[in-house]
Design a protein that fits this description.
about 375 residues, alpha/beta, FAD/NAD(P)-binding domain, six-stranded mixed sheet, four-stranded parallel sheet, 11 helices, 27 strands, about 30% helix, binds flavin-adenine dinucleotide
């Protein structure tokens, strides 16, 4: 009987677990996650703008494990030793014959303890709950979003819709370190997003960074100070600490460079945000679509190895991406076709509903989209 361990019960990890069930192999499966629920991250900002209940975005990992033959262990992995094929978690140790690392990514505060202490992050359903209750409780003068990437923009537009609903005026500012928002994305998208941010009265400060937060005052480079300000930090992500300490080739975010079969070594696979995979000279971005396929493929390759068959190469298909904006003015590309406005918003919500782990959650997401004016 082979011992199979999965670290992480997100899109990649759970897809892998499902793939093992019914594979016909004799295995003892363990899935370890530091959280009890798998949170549907792409709709977290919509908890603000659309009023989606954060509870609609969570699904009990143990419930899926129960259906797949995996034992669920609610614990945080602190190290992995690929040579000894051993995982060390806070409360126990696990040996494996095959491992899938699918631990995703977390907010990166780049070592700034001050920002980590005072800013809000958006990594899970409980983070969304914390932001909503704080904003309902306290009136701020300014709302500062750190980071002008997809998530920062999505958060800023959702904040505006949320504040409008509460009938609270307030300045919203996106602070971006780079000279422009949305990094390498096409110019048409940057112009479209910038025009929409203007429409929503959201300011953009480029080539700037949040330096510190003190007594609700936010200090930004160039001597700017925003008083009585609420800060959401969406300026980057990094992989889990145990990966940072793993001996492997990694990118600056700590994503592990994998081979064409998604392997770190013969017994250790990496899938989802934790994996750094190069396709036609371009590294794949972090996205749900890749995480799901990679989780399934990592499991398939382990099953093949156990059955004495060849492992399969990963050939990703990029379906495209959407930058969701809360006033239904989203934009993106789908299979090479540019989309914008309500259609783009609708595609985002349809993807989210379809990818949800339960019909109930999917229905809950779609219902809020329709109700809030899709
Ligand atoms: C606000 C936001 C909006 C997003 N919007 C989109 C979008 O619109 N479209 C899109 O495609 N993608 C979007 N993404 C990115 C997408 O959510 C990720 O690419 C995807 O979740 C990655 O899946 P994963 O399985 O690799 O990791 P995750 O889904 O993050 O799951 C990782 C799991 O590992 C667990 N874990 C982590 N460290 C440890 C540890 N040390 N020990 C045990 N368990 C651990 C975590 O608790 C978690 O359950 C968004 C992300 C965020 C945060």
């Amino acid at each position: 009987m082979k011992k199979i361990c999965i670290i992480g019960g997100g899109f990649a990890g759970l897809t892998a677990a499902i793939r093992f069930s019914g594979s016909g192999i004799d295995f003892e499966g363990t899935l370890i996650d530091k959280k009890e629920t798998s949170d549907f991250l792409p709709t977290l900002p919509d908890c603000l703008g659309r009023g989606i209940s954060p509870g609609c975005l969570t699904y009990k990992i143990g419930a899926i494990c129960g259906k797949t033959g995996f034992k669920f262990v609610n614990d945080e992995v602190i190290s992995v030793d690929p040579e000894r094929k051993e995982i060390i978690a806070r409360a126990g140790r696990f040996n494996y014959d095959y491992l899938i690392i699918a631990s995703g990514s977390d907010t990166n505060f780049y070592g700034n303890e001050n920002i980590k202490k005072y800013a809000y992050k958006l990594d899970g359903a409980t983070d969304a709950e914390k932001i909503i209750s704080k904003l309902k409780e306290v009136k701020y003068q300014a709302y500062v979003v750190g980071g002008g990437g997809y998530t920062g923009i999505e958060v800023a537009t959702n904040l505006r819709v949320f504040l409008n609903r509460l009938k609270r005026p307030g300045r919203i500012i996106i602070v971006e370190r780079a000279p422009a928002i949305l990094g390498p994305l096409p110019e048409w998208m940057k112009s479209y997003v910038s025009a929409n941010l203007k429409r929503l009265d959201i300011d953009i400060l480029t080539a700037s960074q949040i330096e510190k937060i003190e007594d609700k005052n936010v200090f930004v480079s160039g001597g700017k100070v925003f008083e009585n300000a609420f800060v959401v930090w969406a300026a980057g992500v990094k992989t889990a600490d145990f990966i940072q300490n793993l001996k492997a080739k990694k990118n600056p975010q700590g994503r592990i460079e994998v081979d064409e079969n998604l392997r770190l070594d013969e017994h250790c696979y990496v899938a989802g945000d934790a994996a750094y995979f190069k396709d036609k000279n371009i590294y794949l971005r972090m996205a749900v679509q890749f995480s799901i396929v990679e989780g399934g493929l990592a499991a398939r390759n382990i099953i093949n190895s156990i059955k004495g068959r060849d492992v399969v190469k990963y050939k990703p298909l990029d379906m495209g991406y959407i930058i969701p904006m809360a006033n239904n003015m989203s934009c993106g590309t789908l299979l090479g076709v540019n989309v914008r406005g309500v259609l783009a918003t609708m595609l985002h919500f349809m993807m989210c509903a379809y990818r949800s782990w339960s019909l109930k959650n999917g229905f809950c997401i779609l219902k809020r989209f329709i109700k809030k004016g899709g």
